[in-house]
Amino acid sequence: MTDNVGVAVSRRNSTRQTGRPSPRRRSPRLRARPRWTRAVVGLTTLSLVLVIAGIWMSRSLSAEIDARLAVEWTPAPTQLFATEFDISPGLALDRRDFAGWLDELAYTERDRARGAGEFAVEPDAVTLVERQGPHHGRTVRVRFTRDAAGRDQVSAIAIPPDGKASRISLGTPLLSVRSAAERRKHRIVPLAAIPGRVVQAVLAAEDHRFFDHPGIDPVRIVAAVVTNLTGDLPYLVGASTLTQQLVKNTMLTPGQTVTRKLHEQALSLLLERRLPKSRILELYLNEVYLGQHGSFAIHGVAQGARALFGKDLHNLSLGEAATMAGTIQAPQRNTPARHPARARTRRNAVLQAMVELDFITPDAAMSAAREPVEPVAALGDVEAPYFADLVGGQLESMLNGQAPGVRVETTLDVRLQRLAEIAVQRGLRDMAGPSAAGTAPVPQIALVAVDPRSGAIRALVGGNSYHGSQFNRAARARRQPGSVIKPFVYLAALERARHDPDFAFTPSSLIDDEPTTFMHDGRPWHPTNFGQTYDGAVTARLALARSRNVAAVKVAERAGLAAVAELWAQASGGTTPPPYPSLALGTFEATPLEVAAAYTMLANGGEWLPLHAVARVSGRDGINVTLPPDPPRQVAGADSAFLVTQMLRSTFEVGTATAARQRGFDLVAAGKTGTTDDLRDAWFAGFTPMLVTVVWVGHDDNRPLGLTGAQAALPIWTDFMRRAHEGRQSADFNQPPGVTRVEVDPVSGLLATARCPAPLLEAFRDGTMPGEWCPLH
Fold it and tell me: What distance lies between CA 279 and its chain's CA centroid?
């Protein structure tokens, strides 16, 4: 303390003696640094930070690239295949349609079929070389003839030099490819299999400096900036290279930010260091987005050729190749199907670019520019989007949502599916007149076709337009079935007669069809027949064929309402409806699939089969599942089911479906119309020994349709079933043991005499035939 005071005093004395303070020695750590020194330190620090950040970012981006390259570039999707495409002599099939199906099966059209997977179309035949299966490489010549109606059909299948075949299977058509993000149509082909004109057209349209830049193109970036600032185009010009587009579409999430663009460019530079140009080009050509085709996203030039022109990639002309390349820039704006003028302008620009790059000659460009822009729908292309959704739902439950890279063999018959879609669209056009009232909405249509021998769903339409509504009415719309339940009312009565010897009921039993009041829970109910028409004493066969309501309710009460309800639940696989008298008129709710299941049971001799859309699932991870897992079960006796089937044949002859015969449907069939209160729902359910088909027509908001089942649903059913059976012989239903046929009078239901004008060969369970002769004639 003393020393500090002494120093302070000494300093004051020195100041007084000299008059100014003595100079101080500055501490070195308090001396200011030169500016250049501070700048060097700052720049060094910043550089070090940037280097560290760059190293970290490089390693991070490299890790992204490594992770992407560690798996397949295109993750194995779920592939949906239709059932085998078979042809045989007598099959109704147009020659050009057959060519379309071959294209769908990955065959390539040539002037002459030489190698496996090639086919050639001739004036009266199609020659092909099988591409797979036990007869790989075998040459087959399918001959066609034209019938009296001017329709083509297969006349013979020749195996040169002098062999024949009664049937050939050409493989399973690919329905769709389902990725985690979208439903897509996608075919992957190696770069060597892509025609040079297609590759050159894409390079000219999108990135002509592809083989010169390192992943990003500074020259194009500057040019794009200048064009966007000074030009007057209605859209911005991009500068993305093929590599950038590939990275953007397969590695990054959608978005338009500066950070994302920098991320894209950095990844592109790194990707070019990891993969050769040829591999990047191959990946791009197989991944490039080329627009929507119905409900499916189209990816890759191979699928694009089919979607835009209905052709195999190898068969594209120079003009078509340029048109397809021109759509890449803006698939929706430049598609030839919707905007042919824009597509033509863009095509010509691509052709001019190809000339400037010396890819083609000016003469070749002029010739290609004269080609008309005529997109043609792929002849064999079948989307079946509602069916694909149904399959997706079944896969979710089967595999607990985990179905990456599996191969799904479905039950769909592509030929029947296309016929179903055509029949639905024709039905809509036919109904436009009688159902249209001002601005009333167009009704919806659902159609389900099932093989009754297996329960396999062969065709399914869930609505008028999947683009307009993805709601699958075939599987999910719960509507009142109306009179389509009536066969099961009569089946319940026949089943009771089978088990109860004191209960007599046969197809010729008489029912009193007169206005009747029914009591339920103490309340009266007065059902009426359609058109207020009553038959009096009428046989069960005619009452069912004519869809008499009062008779159906009386039979239901005799059979037991609870028994009818339980029988319907077992036959349809649905819930048990309330056992009210109105049950006999279908006042509960059911889906078209449930109705199809019930009629499949009827067509299959009383045996219930689970309806299924998936036959088999297999995958690389050991997945191998064969469907359906549920065993069949006998719901009704084979004799009872046969008797009802025979009764339903009269619907086409003297009942509510006689219009089907007038429309040219002449096969052995059984069926039933259905119409609900206020004409809100129109149904027809019917079957042959080969196919069960159910059609529903109505509005989603349940407003009145204004048409009966015979007016709205039957024409669609008839159109589909007639074409589905073209070229096939009519077959009768198998008669089970224990059934006898005898001639009866259709009015009295008793044994026919020689004087009866129109005797009917009726089927009876043994021991239940009438014992009296008809007294009326």
Answer: 32
